[in-house]
Amino acid sequence: MDCTCYDYSELRCVTSKSLLHGLSLVKNLTKQNFRTLDFKFDSIKFDLQADYFSSLTNIIDNSGNSYISITFRYHNFELFHSHTAAFRSLFDNVKRQNRSRTRLTIELQPVKPKSIIFDSNSFENLHLDELSIYADSISSPFESVFNQTHIIHLNIEGAIVQHDPELVKTFTGKIKAFKITRMIDTMNSDEFPPFPVESYIIEAHKLRKLEAATFENYTQLNGINIIQPDVSITPQLLMGLEKIIKLNSMSFDAERIADGALKYVKQIQTVAFGPYLKMIDIDSLQSLKLLRQLDVRYVQFPTLQGNSSCLLTDFINKRRMDDLTVYLPQENPDCDCSLIFLNNIIDDGSQLKQCLETTNDRCLFSSCPFIADYFQRQQQEQQQEQQRLQQEQQRLQQEQQRLQQEQQRAQNELTSTKPDTKRINVPYGEELDEEHSVPPNVVNTFDTLVPVLVDFEASPPLNDFKEQVITTTTEPIATTTTTEILDVDPDNVNDNDQSKEITTNTYAKVTTTDSDFLQFFTASIERRLESKQQDQDKPLFIIISWIPFAIIALCLFLSLAFAMIGYVIYYKRRTASFKLVPTSSII
User: Fold this and answer.
1) Closest CA to 49 of 24, 25, 20, 80
2) What distance lies between CA 420 and its chain's CA centroid?
3) Cβ neighbours of residue 229 under 8 Å, at least 6 residues apart?
4) Could you tell me whether strands 209-210 and 174-183 are parallel, antiparallel, or unpaired per DSSP bridges?
5) Phi, psi of 581 (to 5 degrees)
6) Nearest alpha-carbon partner for 175 in 194, 198, 195
C-alpha cells in the first residue's frame, strides 16, 4: 500500500491488492493522529471480515477538537462482500461524546450489477454523525444492514434499497435523518418505501410522474427534492401533496413552474430553486404563505425568462420584512441588476460597489420598475452626497483662509505694537517740535498751543541725580495772542484774488532753573518711556474703537469753524485785536 501524508493531518493511500486479512499499515504511521483519511482500493474481489478496519484506530485523531473524515473507494470489482460487524471497530479509539464529529463515506463502483452484498448488522455498533454510501444497489434489506447502529445523517445515493416490514419489529437502529437519491421515472411508495427513520427525504431525478396519494400515510416524510424533471412543475404533478402533513421542505430544479402549481404545497416552510429554473409565475410564489426560508443560491438570474426575474426579486423584497431568510448567490459575474438589488438590501452590498460603474445605465432603465426606481434614488443620493462633500470642502477652504487671515492680522498686531526705538533716541526738543508744531496758516480758536522756551544757559545738572537737591520755581507765563482780521468787502471781492491769510502769533517765556530742567527732562523721558511701554501692551481693538469719536470731534470742529467764518463775513464786523486767556495749567 502506497501512502502519502499531507501536513501531518491528511493521509491518502492506494493499493491494488484485495487485502483479505484486514487493512494493515506500515508501523511508522501508528503514532500519527490524522483527521482526514482517504483509501482507494482497486481489485477484483473484496471480502471484509469482522473488525476489518481495527488497525485504523491507532492513527485516528482522538482529541475531539476536529472533524474526522474517512473515505473508502472500491473501484472495478466483481464482488464486494461486507460481513457482520465489518465496520464495528472503526471509531473505537474515538470517545463516544466526540463521535458526533465523524464522517464515513463509501464509494462502490462495480464492473457488473448485483455485485454488492451487505450482511446483516454490517455496521453494528457504529456511532457517527454522517454515513454516505454511493452504490447502484444494496442486496440486503434496509432494516438488516443498519440494525444496531446510531447514525445522525444517512445518505444513500443511486442504490435501490429494499424494505422488509417484518424486520421493522426487531429493528433497533437509530437513524435521525435519512435521504435517498435515485433516478426514477415514477415516484411512489413502491420505489420509496417507509423506512424506520425519524426524518425522510426523497430526491428524485428525471421525474415524469408523482403519485402523491401513495404517500398520505407517511408520517416521517418531510422533504421532497425534484431535480431536472422531464416535465414542467404543474398543478397536475403536485396535486395531493397538500395531504402530507409533515411535508415542510421542497426543492425544485426545473425549467418551468407554472399555473400556480405551488398552491398544492403551501404548507412548506423551506423551498429551494436550482440552476435549471427559467420561468416561475407569481401565483405560485404568492401561495407560499408559511415560507420561512428561501434558497436561491444556485438560481441563474440572468437566464430567467420573461418577467420571472422581476417577480422573484419583488417577492423576496416584500417577504424579507416578514422574517423570511434568503440565501443569495455569493457571486455575480454578469452584474445582474436583480442580484445587485437583492445583495444591497439583504446582504453586505458589495456587488453594488463592484458593478456600479459597468451597469449603472442598464440598471437605471431596468424593465423592473422598482429596481429602476431604486437605482435612480441611489444615483440621486450619490449626487447629493457629492454636493455635500464639495460644500464641506469649500467650507473647509474658507475656514482655512479665515485662519490664515487671522494669523496674518495677529502678526501685524505684534509688528505694530513693537516699541519705536528710533523715536526714543530722538532729542526731546526735536520730538516736541515735531509732534506739537502748528501750521502757520491755521488758527486754533479754541485751544491755542503755546510753545515752551527753555533756558539752557544754566549750569549743567549734576551727574549724581540722587544726591542733587532739586528746587522748582514756577512763575506765571505771560502769553499774548494777537489776531488780525481783515475787513473784507464782499462787493469788491475778485474771484481771481487769492484769499488772505490770518496769522496769529503767540509767545511765551518760561524761565527755569537747573533743577527745573533736570526734573522736567528726567520726568519727561520717564513718561515717554512709560507711555511707549504702555502703548506696546494696548490691544489693537482699543485703538480702533477711538477712531469714530475722533471723526465726530473733527466734524463738529469743522462745522463750528465754518459757522463762525460765515458769521463774520455775513455781518462785516471788524475786530482789531483781542487777547486770549491761556487755558493750559501753569507749569
Assistant:
1) 20
2) 60
3) 204, 206, 207, 208, 237, 254
4) unpaired
5) -85, 125
6) 198
The residues with which 15 forms a beta bridge, in sequence order, are 41
The tens digit of pLDDT for each residue in 428-479 reads: 444 444 444 444 444 444 443 444 444 444 444 444 444 443 344 444 444 4
pTM over cut 0.70: no
* pLDDT for 513: 47
Contact status, residue 116 vs residue 135, Cβ threshold 8 Å: yes
Q: Whole-angstrom Cα distance, residue 450 to residue 509?
A: 10
How far apart CA 43 and CA 78 sit, in angstroms, is: 8
Q: Dump pLDDT digits (tens) for 199-209.
A: 999 999 999 99
Contact 222, 196 (CB under 8 A): no
Q: In one letter, which amino acid is 354?
A: Q
CA–CA dist 338, 371 (Å, integer): 7
The torsion region of residue 458 among left (phi > 0), alpha (psi -120 to 50) and beta comes to beta
Amino acid code (one letter) for 473: T
Query: Helix axis angle, 514-537 relative to 428-436, nearest 10°?
Result: 60
Q: How many Å apart are CA 409 and CA 457, to the nearest integer?
A: 50
Residue for grid cell 429554473: 277
Q: What is the C-alpha separation between 526 and 428, in angstroms, rounded?
A: 12
The closest alpha carbon to 45, from 81, 87, 85, belongs to 81
Other C-beta atoms lying within 10 Å of the C-beta of residue 21: 9
